[in-house]
Amino acid sequence: MENLAIFTVLNYPNETKFFNILDTLESRKVGYVEIGIPVTNPYVDGELIQEAHQSVMKDGLSKEKVQQALKTIKENYSFKVILMTYKEGVELFDLDHLSHELYDGIICVDQVLNPEVFNQPVYIFNEDLSDEELTGYLNSQSPFHYVMSGRGKTGSFDSVPTEYVETIKKIAVIKKDTKNFIGFGIKTKEDISSVKNNGADGAIIGTEFLKTHARDGITGIENYLDSLA
Q: Which domains does the chain have, with CATH numbers?
């Protein structure tokens, strides 16, 4: 599971259950956990993830709570921590002043982050990027490259699009020694095998994981993760 990234939202559905989720991810030796830093309008995400963001924001979240949660995570878990947020989240929680020791990479959906300020920004790749943009992103250090399978919001795909295949080919022409993870639409072990057969190094799962937890709780995500192994 070292080349699997699972997305969840900080302190969702509440702080205790959030850490129970992390315990499960640790027990299954998931390599990367993307932790959504909530914002009021996560407009690129689908309904389920939007509701998760809004639920945490409604309960109240301060930059001190964010920092303390990340400190606890780094002290107790071995997976790589990838923050995922929007420009609003960066500003609300002063993520530009966050200690680099508290996370291993950061994704900002709607802003290009300066690698001199943030620890190993993870850039999002799609078929619309120019060769110049691709080259600029590929010259940076990051745990992996987030390659969108296709256009759309998270959770909006019935199956995995294939636009990512051309993106991976373009990346390989510019820089061969990259780690490319496919996100958007990944749900099953078969989906993971398919993207890896098409040149990907790993996969990112978010909506399906959160949906499983909402429906079946910890036992559900334990069984779900076992099905992906």
A: 4-228 (3.20.20.70)
